[in-house]
Records
---
Amino acid sequence: MSMLDSIEEPAPAALARSEDQSDNCHPMFRAVPSTVGFNKLRKRLLRNTRQAIDDFVMAGTKDGRNQRWLIGLSGGKDSYGLLALLLDLKWRGLLPVELIACNLDQGQPNFPKHILPEFLDRNGIAHRIEYRDTYSIITEKLPENSTYCSLCSRLRRGHLYRISREEECDALVLGHHREDILETFFMNFFHGGRLAAMPPKLLNDEGDVMVCRPLAYCAENDLAKFAEAMEFPIIPCDLCGSQDGLQRNVMKAMIGDMERRMPGRKDSMIRALANVRPSHLMDRELHDFAGLNEQVNIQAKEQS
Ligand code: SF4
């Protein structure tokens, strides 16, 4: 039995929204719905998050001390979910990691600056809010009406790496989920000419910041329901007027359609990414096809 299996099921006659759990949970969970449905959802997300952390060896001690993680908090449903789930795991004693939430205010027009600091202060969460006007850089560099997201994400990532170093964090932790990984896989497959997805854990090019994605097994729909039930104060990511690549939306629709027609495909595809047979693909760098000729000669000699 895993430690998460010991999480108690809710009382049958629970109130719709409980206010009396202050001693038993992180402050963020004090007023969560006390319904069976929400508790099942929370437990499933916790189990999936814990599984990814274990499978990809994300947590641990370093030089005899607990790790420090910088959590990228954009104000979207996924990053709020990531923060809440990691705090929940830590509260339960299942994640011995120091957590710092970090929001990069990129200077998008009408960005509501007060929302995240108020939310984080109210819930007693260690955080750093950083203002860097990457929006002006993007609008100066790119022609009008172009899609900003790619450059915007790259600039944001660079700042998050820098802040991770400054905060002496062992990992930058991001809220990408199962669907993000699958969409990236199909983007690369259909448009990039390569088999590659979004890894649950990777080292940056400079080799000094680990990037982890503990929600790699979590379903986007679960995170959306969780965010709604938790009443996170969501900040939309399209304040800048840009829109994410159309191709990603096409992939999302395609994968969603597959799942509707053949339920379980998303889980199967995620399992496939962890079960690779280079000998049954066509990458000559990964598999020694030429060497098969030698092997057949050796085997033929042994049999004669
Ligand atoms: S929608 Fe705007 S803020 Fe969000 S990633 Fe794209 S360019 Fe950046």
Note: Residues 3-303 form a domain with the Rossmann fold fold (CATH 3.40.50.620).
---
Amino acid sequence: MNFPADYEVPKVWQWNQANGGEFANINRPVAGPTHDKELPVGQHPLQLYSLATPNGVKVTVMLEELLALGHRGAEYDAWLINIREGDQFGSGFVAVNPNSKIPALMDRSTAEPTRVFESGSILLYLAEKFGAFLPRDHAKRAECLSWLFWQMGSAPYLGGGFGHFYAYAPMKIEYCIDRFTMEVKRQLDVLDRRLADHEYLAGDEYTIADIAVWPWYGGVIADNSYNAAEFLDGASYTNVLRWQKKIADRPAVQRGRRVNRIVGPEELQVRERHDASDIS
Ligand SMILES: N[C@@H](CCC(=O)N[C@@H](CS)C(=O)NCC(=O)O)C(=O)O
């Protein structure tokens, strides 16, 4: 085990803005806006302010799935919030999400516009609004919501813990990588066991639980995030891989993944979406 040298824990923590790391220029220990900036508003009932990270992709996949089912009320404008440039700290964005994180949604079809933040809350809001991807049957609905909330509680270990220390931290710290790798592999095993005898997480139906979990856990073993599939031995989670591929093949998923994307192959990037024809 290697030990980081020369760090003594001070009595009271002080913010060291130059502590390095991938997100040092945007991370802050305080909330609230840093600058005045109104958000744009388009033509459609739903206004999404987001970026194609795993949390952002959940919502654009959900909206594309609803449109594929024929729900015209799910038409949306997707505006780009570039979190590396601090757009999440603009006053307009903070008014929609006081937590300054994408994704954030404004439903302008209601008498007063309704703000919704937290990706899990947005999925549930849309599922209830359109009566889709959330089972009606009592037991199946409970199972679906359990997996949805499992994702919301678990993914920070994958993203903020494992992903941060494996891919982004300015130094490789064995203790941190070990701690979070252990937890992420345990989580992958939880999913693998569940998917061994169920087609989808809530049972036989594709639901918002799959839409929430897929971009994170499907993404990491399909090598879409952190370049860590080999390190995590992703190939050994055969049931998760089977489920990952099945969902990846859905046309709405392929469309949703591209919205607000600003990295990867140029032809797959749809920086903003205002009409179905924006996704060729
Ligand atoms: N629990 C939140 C997490 C959202 C989140 O962490 N968003 C990240 C991108 S994936 C973000 O906006 N980060 C910007 C920042 O931390 O300043 C959700 O699921 O919506």
Note: The chain has a mean pLDDT of 96.
